[in-house]
Amino acid sequence: MKLKNWLLETSLTQRILFGMVAGVLTGIFFGESTAHLKPISDIYLNSFQMMVVPYLMLSLMISIGQLSVQGAIRLTRYGLILMISFWILTLVLLYFLPLTFPKMQNASFFSYELIEAPKKLDLLNMFIPVNPFSSMTNAVIPAVVIFSLAIGVSLIGIANKSVLIENLQLLATAMLRVMLLVIKFSPIGVFAITAITAGTISTEDFQHLLVYFVSYYFLAGLLIFILLPIIVTHITPVSYRELMRSGKDGLVLAFFTSNPFMAMPLMSEQLNHLMRQKDMFCQDATSTVQALSPTVLTFPNPGKLLVLIFVPFAAWSGGEYFLQSDYAEMLIVGLFSVFASAQVVMPGLFDMLGVKQSYLNIFISSGVVTSNFGAMTSAMSLLSFNILGIMAMTGHLHFSPGRLLRCLAIIAFACVSSFFILRTILPFVVSDDYTKDESLRSMTLKESLPVIVTKELPPESSAGVSTLEQIRARGALRVGYIENRFPFTFTNTNNQLVGMDVELANDLAKALNVSALEFVQVSSGQVNSALVQGRIDVMMSMPYDMNSFEDLRYSKSYFDTVIGLVVKDEDLYKFKSVAQIRERGYLKVGLSTDDMGIAQLFKGRLKGVQVEFVEIKSIGDYFDNKYPDLDGMFMLASSASAWSILNPGFSVVVPQPTLLRLPVGIATHRLNEGLSNYINYWLSIVQANGAIDRAYAHWVLGKDVNKRVRRWSIKEDVLGW
Question: Transmembrane segments in this chain: where (predicted)?
Answer without folding.
Answer: 12-31, 43-63, 75-97, 139-158, 170-196, 216-238, 250-268, 305-323, 330-350, 362-392, 404-426
